[in-house]
## 1
Amino acid sequence: MKISVIGAGNVGATCAAVIAEKEICNRIVLVDVVEGLAEGKALDLAQTAPLARYTTKIIGTNNDYEPTKDSSIVVITSGLPRKPGMSREDLISTNAKIVKSVTQNAVKYSPNAIFIVVANPLDVMAYTAFMSSKISPKKVIGMAGMLDTARYKSFIANEIGCSSKDIMAITLGGHGDTMVPLPRYTSVSGVPVTQLVAKDKLDAIIERTIYGGGEIVKLLGTSAWYAPGYAAAKMAALIAKDQRRYEPASTYLQGEFGYNDIYFGAPVMLGKNGIENILEIELNDEERALVDVSANKVKDSIELLKSLNI
């Protein structure tokens, strides 16, 4: 099995490293437009193999997609971070052009691949990849909810003083400041989190989760990469191994939750065909109101994308 990672920056390189070490496939292809970047990181990872004792083969290429031919999974991490003074329209326009080009090049050589999109703004870029690929939406998945939920779980584990392994949780909605962590669907070894964490502290955890990416940007001066890279690799593993597990991801909705023609965070079953099922959970009035706000923001961004005629 071959997995290609497009974009050899921090997120892409982390994703490739995790895939290699866990031996999710037997060959990884790293692609980047920056000369030497993908080749150098692939060489570094190849030299790590004797230390980490993995047999995964890794190669890097400079904007050449032919080595990606017949990939089973393609992870797209390409795109620019939002810079000071850059408008939402500028960010969408710039990254949509990149994602469109990357997707079309990758699907040309791997028409049967499943695509995992990590570029931001996440939901809009997943939509861009879907429209550009002209393949089933079940095979184009945005990585967001898994990362958001991981942050949510880590903050809860720190508050309670327990292992994050014991926490089950869900986040819904767009990736960003309108995401919706759901305490009603959050538990610790089956015990509702509301019985273990006071409301004011749980509200603070939810707020911190929503702005979790921004917190890291303030500290590092750039976006996170370990958790996003690992999350994308974990999604690839679930698909490659046909594990059919439910995880939150950005998926194309066709009536689910009452929304149409948008990519939106929801619990999905990941297996060999990509998205095997979308789990529609019941929402109370308060949850529905928050999810509607998130959906409307994603819709606005998608309409902006359409107006740009990229």
Note: The chain has a mean pLDDT of 96.
## 2
Amino acid sequence: MGRGNFKRALYSKRFIVTAEIGPPKGTNLDKFSRDVALIKDLVDGINVTDHQKSVMRFPSIGGCMLIREAGGEPILQMTCRDRNRLALGSELLLASSRGIDNVLCLTGDSILLGDQPQAKPVFDLDSVQLIQMVRAFESGRDLGGNSLDGVGEFCVGATVTPDADPIEPQLLKFAKKVQAGAEFFQTQAIYDLDNFKYFMAEAKKFPVKILAGILLLTSPAMAHYMNHHVPGMCVPQSVIDEMEKAPKGERLKRGIEIAVRMIKTIREEGLCDGVHLMTIGKEAAIPEILSLVGDMSCPIQ
């Protein structure tokens, strides 16, 4: 893959598909490598999560290097929770030197959600300031105004939660991220398309690309957990009922059917620019999901 492929895809006017892989808690990268090989030619970019849910894992930058070596298009996730501006900056330099030019800027989950709550959170910057730092690097300066010797261009992304209630604070933060320099957004998981349409009516006022988050459900219990423990997440009761009606051995299949239906609706109605698949360890389902969705190569109207 050459540099800038993901950014070219974003502006190609066709429906974009990205996916994410969670790296292992350790150095056994066999499954990670298999997942990369399985999906790298099916999607436009692969995110590597950055200590998701505040659980220490193999680093996003390391996973991105492996994706790059395998011929895939990596999207580096960077959270402000664990590193100050010096560490974040040095990681950006490393990424740029290794041809990794897609970065998703995140504030990060609370340490208290993780498996080491005694860890010290950093939060020297937030996601808006991290976006500003990436753009400053492109101009050849760090946040202290000091010159940098050789930094490439980045394709900068961020996240937004369309199901947040109230939605107004999210829209304000969304606008700040756009102003700071974000050019694409991968949303948190959506299930309520009416809420998403309302969000998109506002989002389309900005010159950015929106990829709707599609989270693969595997059980009713998973849906209930997200509704009660994940801020901004709303799985409608109708979707939960649909999962509950499926026999226990077929609930993954039903979750795939729901994901496929969501993607088809978003694509056919032209609601946004693409989707971001989150399968949480079930990456083997991605080829089946995309096969069932069918051809997505036609330009978005």
Note: The chain has one domain: 5-216+274-282.
## 3
Amino acid sequence: MGAVLMFFNDCPGGVNCAMDWANTHAEGMASGSPLLSFGSAQTGVYNPKSPGFWRRELLDAAYAGVQFFLLNTYGPDLTAAANPLAQLDQALTDTQSSVKIGLFDDTSTWGHSSGAFATAPDLSNAMVAAQTIFTAKWKPFFSRVKKENWYLFNGQPLIYFYNAGTLTPAAQSAAVVAQLHTLFQAEFGVSPFIAVDEAYFQDSDMPNQADGRFNWDTFRTGAISDNTIKGVRLDHFMVKWDSLSRDNRQRPIIATAGNRLYKDEALLKTRLQESAGSQIAVIATWNDMGEGTGINRNFDYFAGGAWLEPDAFIKDIRATQCSN
């Protein structure tokens, strides 16, 4: 059991952290909180530049019985002056965490940023595209996360390869995934387990090259993403959604059925039961406050005529993952 974890928050008040931009709020969004303390710092903010951010998420995930985080990585975040993965390393060491780390390769940035990400690689040129992706993102990510902290499935580090419509043509993507396997093996001595967004399965050879398959937004389909490739069953699902503030510039607004508000625990409990027989299950997401998909510790969800406990979703996961 794992979850996608966002680490682009710039609290207080910055990216993904405006208090009126989301209806999900975490401790430390607006000001320092003792829940996010670290070392001699008595308080901390909900910001990946702070080791207290990582420490709290690791402790809560471990309590829930979550085995891994897939870090939602855009690419430019790996070259930022304030290295968030260095803060993660501090927190992993401090907590001696049982929670391991994999890569969620969010491809949204290609062609919309600067430097290495200014131009999106052309997937029709498999060798060049794979080398570009590997050099810009996969290699620096796994070079910064210590091997002992990698999440391994059957000995293979786990990578989610997301489709944001920036890498094209999708119908010629299987050879790129094959090359990425080869490049990773050559650099790190092990071949990764690559779970591929279903959009890339336009390439008829993708079932032979991918190790897993997922559909990101399961609210659109109304069903769990459940796929078995090469004998491995991978389940992926969203269970909470509240993007009312983010998606509507005019505030306040009265919600309608079209706003897809999923606030309570019912869907999480259903998906946990449905995925009980899978070898890998991934929740999207642990903490995306803007989309309101997070199931991490929060303090302002009201459902069924009552306030949910801050760790309600965490306890639901624990009930299925832990014997005590």
Note: The first helix runs from residue 51 to 64.
## 4
Amino acid sequence: MVEVRPFKGITYNKEKIQTLDKVMSPPYDIISEKMQEKLYNNDPYNFVRLILGKIFSEDSDSNNRYTRAKKSFEDWIQQSILIQSDKEAIYPYRIEYMLKGEKRAMNGFFILLKLDRDYKLVKAHEKTLSKPKADRLNLMRACQANLEPIQLLYIDEKDRLQQAIQDNLSEKPLIDVKGYDTFHHSIWKIDDKRLIKQIKETLDEQVLFIADGHHRYQTAINFAEEMERKTGITDKDAPFNYRMVILANMFDEGLAILPTHRLMKLTVNQDDIIEKLKEFFTIEAIPRKTTNKEYNPIIQTIKDKLETTQDHRFALVFKDTYYILTLKDEASMDELAKEQSKTWRTLDVSILHKIIIEHIMGITQESLEDHVKYTRDDEEAIQFIDDGTFDFSFLMNATKIDELKQIAEAGEHMPQKSTYFLPKMLSGLVMYKMDF
């Protein structure tokens, strides 16, 4: 069964930090080098120093981004920059934001979740990459803490659990900030034992779905197994067997999934690739001028052309031309991915990876990280081609939440970076330190 428990959260001390907005950070995996520099300059106590510290040429085994994160974390606690709650609690979380001119709000709550090492009750839908897992494991080893949450979804069609939490909220949040994304992020603290008991009982028979944080969840499992070996502690309730998470209702109207575009680093003959694609796709070629750096019109045109309820469409962008690719026949996937379910074979992201990236371009799972990078920014997916950072890109439609659920329930995995949930959680709101 799913097991959760409250915890003594660590938060920034409002008496020491006058402007909390300046110490918050985006999640580590969406921080660019330029954004990292900006966060460093925002405040000497900005959270980026813990989750994604700078790398220097003189770094060594004894002095690197992980050892510096550990020292900063310990120093900030000692200086009361960060303070720990004296009571175990859950931390309700609300994000208010605008999407396509519409005001939205997502509600969830921070809590500790017992690790499900076999993924029987915690379902993953994406494959993970080796480099991010190694990076997060090194950080967890150094700090022995969960600095950022993982977001998981539970199913509550009548939203009773969230209603019970809302009924117990105080008028004034514990932390109330404007994030890097201009979204409004608020957390509260609740230590009411009756409510916590209700949460435990409600989640007891649930199956949870990872929305954001596949690498961090697997890293937590790897860390727990490592700690068992190192310490000899086999208690299943040991602190390292729990992970700080944010739980949200899958039916929350404030949740949205956006597409993640593929940036390709691969020298190809454009005409040859288009000729090979014609076997599987109908193709519309649209010339464009790279001298025009106003990207909004082309982005809107591509979005309009990709819009569909039944077809599988992608935009392939080169410097001088972009192509709208429409799959001719779903049966093309039957032979290339016959070991996968029908649902998996008809996902846009599966079609893109299996037919185009693997079959036509010859990029294997082993070489994927060398040739494929990701962006959620429509403009970047075009601009990076124009400036030569990447050779070409694929823009695509978003995965649907019911597809995610079906894939996870079947125990299958989508290709990496198949989903991008909005709103993104803000980093720096609350932390969990493992004491063992």
Note: The CA atoms of residues 24 and 261 lie 26 Å apart.
